[in-house]
Amino acid sequence: MLRRTAARTFARSLLLLALAQTALGGCQSKGGATAKEGGNAGSAATLPAGEGRAAQPGRDQASVTNEAGATPTTGTATATAADKPAEAKPTSTPAAPAPPSVGQGSGAALADPSARMAGGGVAGKGIAGSGTYGRASAASRGGVGGQVAVAPRRPMPSQQIADVDPTSGEGFKDYGQNAWVDASKDRLSTFAADVDTASYTIARRKLTEGALPPAAAVRVEEFVNYFGYDYAPPAAGQPFAVHIDAAPSPFNPGRHIVRVGVTTKAKSIAERKPMRLVFLVDVSGSMQSPDKLELAKRSLRILVDNLKDGDTVALVTYAGATRVVLPATGLDRKNAILSAIEDLTAGGGTGMASGMDLAYEQAMKGLGSGVESRVIVLSDGDANIGRASHAEIMSTIAGKVREGVTLSTIGFGMGNYKDETMEQLANKGNGNNYYIDGLSQAKRVFQQQLGSTLEVVAQDVKLQVDFDPAAVARYRLIGYENRDIADADFRNDAVDAGEIGAGHQVTALYEIEVRPTLNADITPGELGPMLTVRVRAKEPKGSKATEQAFTFGDEAMAHSFASAPTDLRFAFAVAGFADVLRGAEDAEHWDLAQLQTIASQAAGTDADRKELVSLIQRARDLRGGTPATRTAIAQ
After folding, report:
1. N or C: at which end does the chain have fewer Cβ atoms within 10 angstroms?
2. Domain count of the fold of the chain
3. Would 200 be classed as within a structural domain?
């Protein structure tokens, strides 16, 4: 695949060079690629061996205690429905083999998260590499039955490219695609929760304006998580509800699609904590266009109109110089807040670091018990002036998170947009990364979803899916490449992960190949749970995590893709569309027309879903669907 990608890149470069030489007599391009490093070392199991209790399919509850002795929690899992295998692809070999499964039951929360770890513990991995979460160290010390060794590299994203358009200066980072993993050699898939949606709205803007998005701009999970799904809310007193379903793949005989959904309880305006907000607005010259500063101002007015008594707003700007435009101001002076926003104008360079210092000064003044303090950065991400390095800015943000101030990023504009910068700032700030491509998206983020946008209800949320090798031969996580966490760090509470707001949903999809025995004439449920989903998280500003575990058995799989739940079919259409747009190897033979049909049949009357159907059609046209479109693109 790397050779094929390199060939495409070389051909595209030759085309750009020829066009530029014709118009300007010369061409200058820049960009590069670095291989994403990763490797496995060591093995670990932190919970004692145990057995899962028998449970009925469907919904169940159980208490779970983490290995550090944190307060037990309970959870609710809803299981609905997948069956079949396919051709093998080469994979690498982790350090230690997985032990046999002992847990029993399906569609249920496990009373003991270690139920699938009997026989000395599952061999975990410490992974070296350049991922966003949990990949800094080369080795992790094993727990029960553990060992430390440098092992062959785990199947990792195929490439990692800084995708910069030489004609516009836009910057995106390609984290590659997750490889297929042999479950008998590595049964655990671990990643951080992600509720960002910027990638989808960036792609929507590109497609609407008549261009395919850069492959590096496409993050599958942000496409999938843009849409809402009909997940049951958590039971009373529970932090999460977990939903698992599965169905045969509509494209590949012998493969199945598994969907894992996690949701939190939504909060009303009255239930939401008071907010101490600091708007840090980029007013540099690069923001001087209607889709940048002017749209940012309209977005802020929508946000202010949806705040409640007890909230305060401060306004800080940064350009060649920085200043506090408005100190913390309550809604009793709402007109003063709106006037300060309206008076913003663009001009000068971009000194993000100094502006951030001022914003944090204002945010720290609002810290207190029972309130949330957050900096909201509104920018195109083009920070080109400032004494602080990228690493120093990230260190500052992480330090302020520890003091109680989170940070979210809201992106605007195209032409010089720095997507990677905006995503990294929000990740480090324990906040969200959104991209506003129009007024309707501003209303979605700052009005319809304000509670989840502003208030974090679960911190450092990690998911780990444990595939029983007796039932699952291979698996592939579709997306979440830059949210990867070392398996051995799942229960390491010092490792950063993702945050979830009130009412947020997190959805992940897998392609799996089941063992031939699952296709034989056996009694449903005879093999026991085929996978276990563990969710680990801290309370906001907490230091100790609690853990829940949920099982899923083959008896809950849909018998066909057509009979699968509507939400599963739509989520797969979204993930498939994103996988095709980014040029994933496993999606090379997936048909956009068929994906469009799947999406259309599952869209119903939902406006967002119907919009996706139209975007798939645009992508088909831009990929050469009609002669008229090909002529228009050439012109």
Report:
1. C
2. 3
3. yes
Q: What is the pLDDT of residue 203?
A: 97
Q: CB 105: neighbour CB atoms within 10 A?
A: 25
CATH number where 291 lies: 3.40.50.410
Nearest to 120 by CA among 49, 43, 44: 49
Residues 281 and 330 grouped into a single domain: yes
Edge-to-edge order in the sheet of strand 472-478: 60-64, 73-79, 241-248, 255-263, 505-514, 472-478, 181-182
Indicate if 9 and 136 belong to the same structural domain: no
Q: Are residues 213 and 357 in the same domain?
A: no
Please state the three-class secondary structure of 367-432 as a single string. CCCCCEEEEEEEECCCCCECCCCHHHHHHHHHHHHHHCEEEEEEECCCCCCEHHHHHHHHHHCCCC
Residues 153 and 43 in one domain: yes
pLDDT one-digit tens code per residue, 364-414: 987 888 889 999 999 988 765 466 677 888 999 999 999 999 999 999 998
Please give the residue range of the domain that contains residue 385: 275-446
439-464 residue pLDDT tens: 999 999 999 998 888 888 999 999 99
Question: What's the confidence (pLDDT) of residue 521?
Answer: 53
Same domain for 306 and 332, yes or no, is yes
- What is the rounded CA–CA span in Å between residue 498 and residue 276? 22
- Identify whether 119 is part of a domain: yes
Angle at 320 between CA 318 and CA 323, to 5 degrees: 40
- Same-domain check for residues 252 and 107: yes
Residue for token digits 């910068």? 421
Looking up tokens 């029960």, which residue turns up? 144
- Same domain, yes or no: 205 and 222: yes
Q: Closest Cα partner for 536 from 626, 439, 609, 463? A: 463
The band of 519, judged by pLDDT with boundaries at 50, 70 and 90, is low
Per-residue pLDDT tens over the stretch 280-333: 999 988 898 999 999 999 999 999 999 999 999 999 998 867 899 999 999 999
